[in-house]
Amino acid sequence: MRVKTGIPNMDCLIGGGIPSGSTVLVSGGCGTGKTTFSIHYIGNGVDDYGDLGVFATFVDDVDKVLLMGKNFGYPLEGWNEAGVLKIIGGAPGRLQGFSGEADVRGEDLTDEMLDAVEDVGADRFVMDGLARFEDLFETRRDFVTNLCRLSRELRELDCTSVLTCSRDVEVEELADGVIVLHYAGKVQKERFIEVVKMFTSLHTDRLERFEITGDGFVLTEDSGESKSSENLKKMSATADRGGSGHNFRKYLEIN
Prior knowledge:
Elements: E1 2-3, E2 18-19, E3 23-28, H1 34-49, E4 53-57, H2 62-71, H3 76-82, E5 85-89, H4 106-120, E6 124-128, H5 130-134, H6 140-156, E7 160-165, H7 169-174, E8 177-184, E9 190-198, E10 207-213, E11 216-219, H8 227-238, H9 241-254
Parallel strand pairs: 3-7, 3-8, 4-5, 4-6, 6-7
Antiparallel strand pairs: 1-2, 8-9, 9-10, 10-11
Helix pairs in contact: 4-6, 8-9
């Protein structure tokens, strides 16, 4: 079974959608569109497919998430009040929706997020800001162990999850799927999306162009047709996972 993101022209790149129960990491630098992708994933789930959801943020205040959703046409606040979508978390020191304060243990927050998924009966889960979440653990090992537990228990609940963070090879190896967002360029900045892996799925091996518009996260219909994107396709077609980023940087240096 596939869980569709509902993002225009996205699902065809990953075999029709995300495999149900998978944990997918959406990674990239600051401003690449990770939160926007996540809001579309959870919002389209409620709006287009009747999926219940939990959205946990460790980057922005809940009010900011609600505003972003409203700007993209998603009535997140109304869904939250109706119980079809639960939004919890907040910027460091301003967590909402948890029983403890901002200095609670990461393990305790994980338990509460899993409880929220069960209480809502959530089909979709988002954690925005994995790096900030890691700060709530005493050691890296504790964080990684907990992340494995979170992924496993979400799968057992048949909840398909999207987690966001900056590039982190160790975490990427733990995820069922990895989607990387690029936003860079010397002469003119462009946005590209790269599906590094997607468990049990045939997926594109090319970098495709996307835009963030007033409608949000959109893969352009002519994605990959320009000269610049053709160069990226050739690079990614011959690169292994470790070389992809190197080739992308090389492309940026000459364009």
